[in-house]
Design brief:
Elements: E1 15-17, E2 23-28, E3 42-47, E4 57-62, H1 72-85, E5 91-95, H2 100-112, H3 117-127, H4 136-145
Helix pairs in contact: 1-2, 2-3, 2-4, 3-4
Length: 148
């Protein structure tokens, strides 16, 4: 069982609470991290280029802005690992702005958490950011993600 101090609080900024009770923080890397915000223990970074190193464990998914992951199978594996780790750790998902790629990845985590793929984008828009998942092909990616 995870120690509650290892998890996101309901008051932490940018946190998506999933139906299972897992929580994942989404954020935009172009915006400075609040120095009082808790740090993640694991991060997944969705960028076209390798991100700079982080002081916590991290994975990188090559994912150019406004596009889809370069390697969908690798992306699925990393997102599944993030979902599993979110049960007992502070996990964050981040891209440049924190909406398109981050929202798409969060919607995929919602699918892994049991939200029907056809409803996952609406779930993330309602509980994370109303403008999350920016392009039609990102929405399509989430629907297809549900087919596993």
């Amino acid at each position: 069982m995870a120690d509650v101090s290892d998890l996101w609080s309901e008051h932490d900024n940018g946190v998506l609470h999933l139906p299972s009770g897992r929580s994942v923080r989404g954020r935009g890397l172009r915006h400075p991290l609040d120095p009082t915000a808790p740090l993640p223990s694991y991060g997944v970074y969705l960028l076209g280029r390798r991100p700079p190193g982080a002081p916590w464990e991290a994975d990188w998914i090559r994912w150019p802005d406004f596009r889809l992951p370069a390697d969908p199978e690798a992306a699925r594996a990393v997102l599944a690992r993030a979902w599993e780790r979110a049960a007992g750790e502070r996990v964050e998902i981040a891209c440049g702005g924190g909406r398109g790629r981050t929202g798409t990845a969060l919607a995929c985590l919602a699918v892994l958490d049991g939200v029907p793929a056809a409803q996952a984008v609406a779930y993330v828009r309602r509980h994370y950011d109303r403008r999350a998942v920016e392009t039609p092909w990102q929405r399509r990616y989430v629907r297809r993600f549900g087919r596993g």
